[in-house]
Design a protein that fits this description.
Blueprint lengths: L6 H14 L7 H26 L6 H14 L16
Helix pairs in contact: 1-3, 2-3
């Protein structure tokens, strides 16, 4: 079966997902760090998608590359929260 989503659009959507999919933070200080990272990534993502839609940044591939680069500049630099299964005790 043929993929109904063109490869360049699929790559952009994956980059958007990866930019915005941050794990929960383990501590209050980590939460503050996570908030800064997600604020920046949301802003970057919004700017690029908006520019693409307004044709100010007309190439999907360039938009994807830029989003991946900006996401890499703001890595997850905190301890993610780890869910633990209930032990029943």
């Amino acid at each position: 079966m043929t993929d109904p989503i063109p490869a360049n659009i699929r790559a952009l959507l994956a980059a958007v997902r990866d930019a915005l999919d941050l794990p929960l933070a383990a501590t209050e200080d980590d939460h503050k760090t996570r908030a800064k990272v997600i604020d920046r990534r949301v802003s970057d993502t919004h700017l690029l998608v908006n520019a693409l839609l307004k044709q100010a940044f007309p190439f999907v591939e360039d938009t994807t590359e830029q989003l991946l680069a900006w996401t890499a500049e703001h890595p997850i630099a905190y301890t993610p929260f780890v869910f633990r299964a209930a032990t029943g005790e």
